[in-house]
Specification:
heterodimer, A: about 190 residues, mainly alpha, disordered C terminus, B: about 200 residues, alpha+beta, Immunoglobulin-like, two-stranded antiparallel ribbon, 7 strands
Chain lengths: ~190, ~200
């Protein structure tokens, strides 16, 4: 009973109480309730509210910031649903896409990357956002990241199947990838037999 | 076996007045009469009752041991004082909810994040971010040799974290060395530093 009470106290409202101005609580509660009703992850909204409270952001701007976060989560879920219609959108995927949107990544590029069987999408989206932030063309970034798993840039099922071939000449797909992928070229020069 | 004197037998059968018996036989007659009266009285408890009472007594003295597997089916009652219940609940909650930030060995889904900042003359520098619920005082940086370079390390879950430095408890500064930044979304154009932790 006591443990259950403690669990309930960990709810978003209890986490916000005392950490954000009291005047902001009704608005924040309403936004979080909307997220719950739409089966969207609430943690990014709670974090944004806590951040605003810690920084002493005025109430209207604080609530607007959280509302903006809710809109991004909705957009993110729509992108995930379009890119991977076969499976249910996970909270983690939606949050990762929302974070990528917040970093200014183009929704079309995110959708293309998600469609390319990157699982989980977080690392691919971080890499894409980094590339774009360094003025890498979005199309080239998408192409690079689509082929990058074969070069062992991050964990994925595809990497496992490729690295199992160790030794000998690289498969054609790897060689094609090596033309554009500096990571591959580095490995190619450093690893005898590849 | 001793034969009963015929005169005593006659007295028992009511054919002779017992008072006419000689003194030595009168005593034997009295004992025999008492024994007959005892036999005629109904017993205080039936034989069955006495047998069952004996069985119950035996059970009370030596309980029959249960088969070993039966302890799984036997109901168990824990009796705890309320104060102990609260203490146990608090301990469980502490284990479940409090992140172990002091752990030096990252798990499979964690990584070590190192923070460094150059803040000459600062009295305190702390890191506040999404990994500590933007809670002040959770992660303080150190400057042991007072050269203005503040540093600290912490084990964080893999993924993306937003954070800022808070200098002297009042100045919020995005880590100049972060390399990645994201608008904080509150409309004033302020940016958070971005940290991506890989396991």
């Amino acid at each position: 009973m006591t443990l259950l009470l403690l669990l309930l106290l960990q709810g978003p409202h209890a986490r916000l109480e005392g950490r954000v101005p009291g005047a902001a609580l009704p608005g924040l509660d309403s936004l979080i309730a909307q997220a719950v009703a739409e089966s969207l992850p609430t943690e990014p909204l709670v974090q944004k509210a806590l951040e605003g409270g810690a920084k002493g952001i005025p109430v209207p701007r604080l609530v607007n910031g959280v509302r903006h976060g809710l809109v991004q989560l909705r957009d993110a879920r729509a992108i995930v649903s379009r890119a991977t219609p076969a499976r249910a959108s996970l909270d983690g995927d939606v949050a990762a896409v929302a974070a990528a949107l917040a970093r200014g990544l183009d929704p079309g590029l995110i959708e293309r990357l998600l469609s390319a069987d990157s699982e989980p999408p977080g690392p691919v989206l971080h890499a894409a956002a980094d590339l774009v932030a360094h003025r890498f063309p979005a199309d080239s970034a998408a192409e690079l990241l689509r082929t990058a798993p074969a070069c062992s840039m991050w964990p994925s099922r595809r990497r496992t199947s490729c690295s199992g071939r160790g030794g000998g000449r690289p498969p054609r797909r790897w060689r094609a990838c090596g033309r554009c992928c500096p990571t591959f070229r580095w490995r190619h020069h450093r690893t005898p037999g590849l | 076996m001793t034969a009963i004197d015929p005169r005593v037998q006659e007295a028992l059968d009511g054919e002779r007045d017992p008072t006419t018996l000689p003194a030595e036989l009168r005593d034997a007659y009295g004992r025999l009469t008492a024994a007959a009266a005892l036999l005629r009285e109904p017993p205080a408890t039936s034989v069955a009752d006495r047998v069952m009472a004996e069985i119950r007594e035996i059970r009370r003295e030596a309980p029959v041991p249960l088969p070993r597997a039966n302890w799984l089916l036997r109901p168990v009652t824990f009796r705890l004082r309320p104060v102990w219940t609260l203490a146990v609940a608090a301990a469980v909650a502490a284990v479940v909810f409090l992140p172990s930030r002091e752990s030096a060995i990252p798990g499979a889904e964690e990584g070590v994040a190192q923070f460094v900042g150059h803040f000459p003359g600062a009295r305190s520098v702390e890191v506040v971010g999404s990994f500590n619920d933007w809670q002040r005082g959770a992660l303080a940086l150190r400057d042991e040799d007072h050269d203005g370079i503040w540093h600290g390390a912490v084990v964080l879950p893999a993924g993306q974290h937003e954070y800022m430095f808070v200098v002297d408890g009042e100045r919020w500064i995005a880590d100049p060395l972060a390399g990645r930044y994201v608008d904080d979304g509150f409309g004033a154009g302020q940016q958070n530093a971005l940290l991506i932790v890989r396991p």
